[in-house]
Structure formats: C-alpha cells, structure tokens
Amino acid sequence: MGKGRLEAFSDGVIAIIITIMVLELKVPHGTSWAALEPLWPVFFSYVLSFIYVGIYWNNHHHLIHTVSHVTGAALWANLHLLFWLSLLPFVTGWVGENHYAGLPLACYGCVLFMCSIAYFVLASCLAADNEALKRALGKDRKGKLSTLLYAIGIVASLGAPWAGFAIYVAVAMIWFIPDRRFEPR
C-alpha cells in the first residue's frame, strides 16, 4: 500500500489533537494580569504537550518519508501510536487543572511512555523491509534513553511531582531538534 493515505490520516488526527488541546484553554474572567494567574498551570501543560505533539508529527513525517510503502502491520502500529497521542489532551488538561499533582503527572508520563513504545513499534514495522530506514534508525539510543527517562519520570512524579515534570521537559528538549538520522535519506 502507498504511504500517502497513512500520512494524510495521521496528519489529520494530529491536527485534531492539537485543536482539542487548545480548546481546553479557558478564556480568563477579567482583564487584568491577575485574571491570567490561575491559568498558568494549564497553559504550561498545553505548551509542553504542543511541543510533544510537534515532535511526534515531525519525526513521524521523517519516518514515513523514508519508506515507499506500508504494510498492514505498519497501519496497525500507526493507529497504536495515534491512540496514545490522542490521550494527550486528556492528561494535559488533568495535569494543568490539578497544578501538576503527582497522580495526574504520573499518568501524563504513562501516556508519553506508551507513545514512545508505540513509535518504536511503528519504526520497527516500517524498517522490517526497508534497509535504508533500518540503517537510519541504528541502535536508536535517543529513543531508548527517552523511554527510560519517561519511566523514571513516572516514578518521580508520584513522590516529587516537579522532578517528574522536569524529566518530561528534559526529554522534550532532547527531541526538540528534529531527528537528523533521516534527513540524508
């Protein structure tokens, strides 16, 4: 099967995810800076999640651009990734509304952890019959490190929520620069 439909569908789902997240931002009641103060936790959780969705969209684009066709397994793996990404608006809102409390932040980390696993599964399915992609992925140290950091962030969130949040920000910073392994290919 050609990759065009998979990429178009994924782009549409990701656009909807971003739309849902932004619609969760509530308009302040008032015109002063003080009216914005209670919204900062929600806004910062939105910014982090927007960055994560952007990272996944960018890397997904590079991943799909590297292959010429997709298999049925890759279609299901892609849906698996989109499922976990679609939960980001929920956990983003929960984290922001509860001012980065431990359990919501740990659940946020669980969703990020599962997104990383799903992306790994998708990349593996696509690389199974694509030698150039297999070479580009290499040992995927950055992906494995990120998954480990998410697991650490989940545990940290339960005991020291700001430490968990700092880990999630650190992983986003690691991935903020697009993955250069794919650009030459």
From TrEMBL:
Predominant localisation class: membrane
Which keywords label this protein? Ion channel, Ion transport, Membrane, Potassium, Potassium channel, Potassium transport, Transmembrane, Transmembrane helix, Transport
Topology within the bilayer: Multi-pass membrane protein
Per the record, a Pfam family? TMEM175
Chain segments annotated as transmembrane: 9-27, 39-58, 70-91, 103-127, 148-177
Give the reactions, separated by semicolons, that this protein catalyses: K(+)(in) = K(+)(out)
Keyword Transport (UniProt): yes
User: According to its UniProt record, where is this protein located?
Assistant: Membrane
- The answer to whether UniProt assigns keyword Manganese to this entry is no
Q: Which family does it belong to?
A: Belongs to the TMEM175 family.
Q: What is this protein called?
A: DUF1211 domain-containing protein
Organism of this sequence: Pseudoduganella danionis
